[in-house]
Structures are given as C-alpha cells and as structure tokens.
Amino acid sequence: MKIHCLSKENSVAGNFIAQMRDVNIQKDSLRFRNNIKRLSHVLAYEISKTLNYNSVQVETPLGKADCNIIKGKTVIASVLRAGLPMHEGFIDIFDDAENAFLSEYRAYNPDGKTFEIKFEYMASPEIEGKTLIIVDPMLATGSSIIVAMNGLLKNGRPSHIHFASIFSSEQGIETLKNNIDSDLCDIWTVVTDPYLNSHGYIVPGLGDAGDLCYGEKL
Fold it and tell me: Is the pTM of this model over 0.85?
C-alpha cells in the first residue's frame, strides 16, 4: 500500500486548503463546494498517472496520431452527502467512469462521543476487475470507508482500489492500513492532520464538511 500526500510539495492546492479551513471564507457554501471540486481535479489527475494505458491511433483532419488512453473501466464511488462535490470533480476528469453512491451516517451512543457507522443504501455497478476509486473529503476515524469498501466488495473484486480524501487524520490512515488489503489499495490525500478530538473530528481540520457544503442537519 502506498500513501500519497500531495501537501508534501507546495502547489496551488495550498490556497484552496487555506480557504476551506478559514472560518470566515468557509461560510460561503458555493466557494467551499468549488474548492472541493478543484482539489478533486488535482487528486484525480494524480491518480490517473498510476493507471494502465492502451495505445490507440486516432484520425485527425490532417493525418493519424498515436494516443494513450486509460485501459479498462473505472468506477467512482462517493459517500453521501459530503462526497457529492468530490464525486462531481472526479467525473469531470474520469468522464467515462461508472458511478456508485453509498449512504452512511454516524449514530452516536448516549455518551455523545462514541458512535457506530450506519450503512443504509448503496447503488453500484459491478466492480469486478475494474479500478475502484472511493471518494470522501474527510478521512477521520476510517470507519466509514471500511464500511463502504465492505459493501462495495459484495459486487466483486476490483483490480485496484484508490481511497481519495482531501483531509485525513493520521489515525484514520493507520486504521485503513490495518484493516484493508495492502496489495489492493492506495490512499490519496491532500492534507494529513495530526489527531482526532473526543468526537472523532479531525483537528485542526475544518469542521463538518457536509454541513459546510449543504447546511446544518437535524
């Protein structure tokens, strides 16, 4: 398993991250969603470098050109609801990808701190032998990604899995490393933050990505 953290090198992605973290700028939901999409474009492009390609010949108005195109099928799977703008960003780049959607939420126990991941809904194509990219802006505890992956693997075994997030905790990355097939998976993130608070939120992080995208929930 490889861990890819894009913030280890300076790039314009740092501007988008700063805007997403800023408590004043992040009040603009449209701008927040657009920054998720822009960072998703960056992640998708980086992931595309690792895929397999076929050489094809394309007819142009003036002759023939040799081109390399992605080999095989790609499936983009997003965890609702914060995953929606990230999903849009990824299919901007992988425009012929198939799509999967998963509904999960944190069901908190009476102590208000510990919780279980409730998995309620999945719509997915067959993933056997395909490249599966699971996207979620926040990799906090890692529990929701593991639940998502287990649900998706009921539809077959992909040729490779890429987990893509924008903000990840070190604990979440370690959880994935200890609970998934290291030969099958890569982890991609823009930023790695040091720890989680008592409620399982990434610190310093940015808050609740779903609320910042679409408004507070009950």
Answer: yes
